[in-house]
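User: I've been trying to design a sequence by hand for this structure and keep getting stuck. Would you show me what you'd pick, starting by listing the structure so we're on the same page?

Assistant: Good idea, let's start from the same input. This is the structure you sent:
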């Protein structure tokens, strides 16, 4: 038995994801697959387009055997902590042979070189990084400049490291490799060349369109336009979701509550949020008082030093009342549980293997967590519940019984 794993968002599951899934199985020869998937809120600091059970159903219907939820406290973090949450959870299953991730470069060696450099951080490299940060550059640009300077002196450079570090999937791939290298986890990494559009591109003409482009059309109610960009099963699940809830979710749906928080929060509270730094809190409060739209606040606050996704993640953590001290404390005890969102018959077999090999409790029914009487588990999983409740609050529908969906919704099972 060989198992390939993925850390995903599937927001929504499109042809690029299907290609990556099938290519990974082909290359590794794996018979089984496991995906750790973000739930109600995603890494770019936004609510998920659709609810997490619908995303899990898409994954299972398109060939993923077992879908596990990444805890919310990790799904809304920077690439480094997002990777940490996913890799540590996968490793704790004690059944994973491979992890496969997409990248723009498509081969692993240069990504490993960068990952090892960023983990080891030689003194000369750290000095170069500090120099560029002191010049007011964002961390990503400062790191890129320091890396190129350092590696150009240390080896015959045959890779364009600057270009590698400008691509989002490469950066996330490096973070996965950093965690594997730092903790010496026994999971074999492979990378698949990303096909189709870049994840930020908004042109829908390509069959393998980006999730960004697909979401843009869905927000404009252009369901027919995206039909050719989604596997039929994904498209039908989107239709089922829309019939049930009427609305796709987006950050604008939280404009009023986020504006309220920015106008009532004090600077010290903002400074306690992860990813915050001195000066940024003043910009958020300033523009929070100037504008009535969270989109305008984000646009005005965004700079080269403060990317849009970072601003959005800070706002979501403010919304969820997650501060730095709490995250660090909970991170020290992580992982605590395995939350199942969806599976097929092969996934059920994998769960039995996990139960035999892993020390972590498996949460199928949400209420199961009560019986373990673990305060860390209780606290982390409560953020998942809060995130789910806030997800459905953002939809703006007048439906009843949209609270406590974690308690009332079972994992999707395709038998």
């Amino acid at each position: 038995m060989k198992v390939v794993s993925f850390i995903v968002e599937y927001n929504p599951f499109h042809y690029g994801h299907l290609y990556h899934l099938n290519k990974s199985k082909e290359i590794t020869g794996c018979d089984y697959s496991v995906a750790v998937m973000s739930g109600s809120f995603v890494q770019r600091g936004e609510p998920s387009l659709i609810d997490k059970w619908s995303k899990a159903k898409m994954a299972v219907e398109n060939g993923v055997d077992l879908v596990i939820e990444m805890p919310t406290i990790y799904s809304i973090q920077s690439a480094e902590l997002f990777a940490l949450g996913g890799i540590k959870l996968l490793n704790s299953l004690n059944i994973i042979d491979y992890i496969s991730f997409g990248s723009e470069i498509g081969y692993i060696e240069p990504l490993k070189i960068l990952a090892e450099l960023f983990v080891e951080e030689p003194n000369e490299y750290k000095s170069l990084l500090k120099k560029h940060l002191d010049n007011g550059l964002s961390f990503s640009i400062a790191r890129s400049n320091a890396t190129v300077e350092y590696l150009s002196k240390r080896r015959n450079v045959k890779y364009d490291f600057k270009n590698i570090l400008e691509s989002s999937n490469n950066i996330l791939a490096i973070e996965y490799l950093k965690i594997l290298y730092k903790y010496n986890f026994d999971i074999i990494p492979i990378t698949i060349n990303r096909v189709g559009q870049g994840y930020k591109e908004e042109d829908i003409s390509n069959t393998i369109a980006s999730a960004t482009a697909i979401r843009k059309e869905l927000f404009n109610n252009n369901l027919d336009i995206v039909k050719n960009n989604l596997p039929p099963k994904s498209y039908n699940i989107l239709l089922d979701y829309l019939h049930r809830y009427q609305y796709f979710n987006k950050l604008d749906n939280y404009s009023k509550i986020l504006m309220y928080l920015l106008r009532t929060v004090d600077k010290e509270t903002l400074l306690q949020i992860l990813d915050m730094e001195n000066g940024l809190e003043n910009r958020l409060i300033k523009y929070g008082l100037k504008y009535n739209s969270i989109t305008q606040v984000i646009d005005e606050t965004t700079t080269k030093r403060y990317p849009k996704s970072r601003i959005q993640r800070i706002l979501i953590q403010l919304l969820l009342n997650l501060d730095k001290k709490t995250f660090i404390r909970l991170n020290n005890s992580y992982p605590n549980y395995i939350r199942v969102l969806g599976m097929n018959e092969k996934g059920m077999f994998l769960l039995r293997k996990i139960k035999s090999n892993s020390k972590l409790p498996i949460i199928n029914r949400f209420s199961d967590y009560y019986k373990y009487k673990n305060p860390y588990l209780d606290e982390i999983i409560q953020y998942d519940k809060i995130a789910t409740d806030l997800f459905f609050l953002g939809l703006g529908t007048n439906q009843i019984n949209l609270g406590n969906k974690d308690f009332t919704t079972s994992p999707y099972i395709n038998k």
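That's my pick for every position. To get oriented when you compare it with your attempt: The mean pLDDT is 94. The longest helix spans residues 375-394.
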